[in-house]
Prior knowledge:
Structural class of chain B: alpha+beta
Strand order of the largest sheet of chain B: 7-8-9-10-11-1-2-3-4-5-6-12
Number of strands of chain A: 0
Helix content of chain B: 10-25%
Radius of gyration of chain A: 22 Å
Order of helices and strands of chain A: HHHHHHHHH
Order of helices and strands of chain B: HHEEEEEEHEEEEEHEEEEEEEEEHE
Radius of gyration of chain B: 21 Å
Number of helices of chain B: 5
Number of strands of chain B: 21
Distance between the termini of chain A: 22 Å
Strand content of chain B: 35-45%
Structural class of chain A: mainly alpha
Largest sheet of chain A: none
Oligomer: heterodimer
Strand content of chain A: under 5%
Largest sheet of chain B: 12 strands, mixed
Amino acid sequence: MKEHISALMDGELFDDEAEAILDKLKRDPEGHEDWLSFHLISDALRQPDHVSPDISAALRERLKAEPTVLAPRGRSAQKVRWFALSAAASVLALAIVAWLSAQVGPEVAPQIAMQQVPGNIRPASANMDDYLMAHQEFSPSSSMEGMTPYIRTVASVQGGRQQ
Amino acid sequence: MRPWWALSLLLLMCGMRPALAAGPAQMDLDWLKTIAFAAHQTDYSGTFIYQYGGHVETSRITHITDQDGEHEKLESLDGPHREIIRNNDEVWCSVDGHKAVQVEKRHKDRAFPALLPEQLNALSENYQILTGPRARVAGFDAQTILFKPKDNLRYAHQFWAHTDSGLLLKAAVLNKHGQVVEQYAFTELTIGGNIKPDWGIPTQSAVSQAHDAHLVPLPGAGVQVVSSGWQVDDLPPGFQKIMEIRRPMRSKKTPVLHMIYSDGLAGISVFVEDMSDDPDDVNPTLTSQGAIQVYRKEVDNHLITVVGEVPPRTVMQVADSVRYAGD
């Protein structure tokens, strides 16, 4: 799941895959946590000065939720869930540190650059076909595959391009 | 059968001992040349499926060569009827029985097959080339060849080439997780024999006079080779500039600057045009279809459009490093 979330944030998934993951995230609180923490991490990497107060704020929120754990156990699924969440929060704090130290490397920068984009992904306008055609003319795929790759450009006329 | 296994083994050994691997096995590069040759010199006609994401469609392609050169027709069998007709260096496109509009006029200098030796070198520097097991596609025996990128700025490509003619029977583009990004495969195919075109091949005079009733020529002046002063600073390793041209485009009043880069297997096009032609589109936008990504953004009051058969991060990296370095 973590790998999928990371791929989603990096803009490496396709429409249907991304939708499936987003659906899963909605239903799966743990996945949702990962989603939030990954964003927190990337925010932290991008603007370390601004984010650390938010992390502690988030943890304070979690700590406020702690007392519910003291209530008799097993009453309701809801409480079990809160316990799990607060436990997850502590693990999360550790995980963030571990993740941060593991992730500091030359690979970090491009990954961060990537995730600013998905919000701006839009369907291509019709005149995009002209660019695709023009590109196809010189693409090495034309020398290897003849005209078959042109199907990419005609396929797009039908029903609009994805993403 | 046996030599292929021996070759695969040899390649494996090369892979394990990169220090000793002086270059790719010549056999693999020979395969590429055969594939490129077959794509343009073979007469064939067949039906193929094209698939990306959840999208599948069927098309028919016929390719013939005669004393006048190459003639080709690609038509969709699903959805609205779309047709692409190519006559040597000219390409027309028609949708739903409308007049065929010329969308391309290839540059005269460019002749197929266009796999240059430098491109082959670039290929082996940036991809691990592996011949795989034999397979069957559309009833033909095929040799599989896998191009595995050495970085994650490009996709992996897998080819299934007809063992006799070298014609590609199937091709797939894979991402770094090994998942298929897009693929096409023939389901029925006739190679060689007496293949007749079922469309009117335009004669040279008809094309030059543009009197042919169903063909609309590309407006504006022809393609010009230029040196504009625009440049890309951060291309992935192995991408070389193939050409820089100004080209007319149907929807544009003025010709568009088009810079073309290739690593031998994937192409990246960088288009530069004045913002005044398309003032409404200024936010950075990424669109994609199968293996093709398109990223647009504004740079110095110009609209930059990067198109390539590469992962999203690569088109973005390229677009982000475009700048005007002229006077």
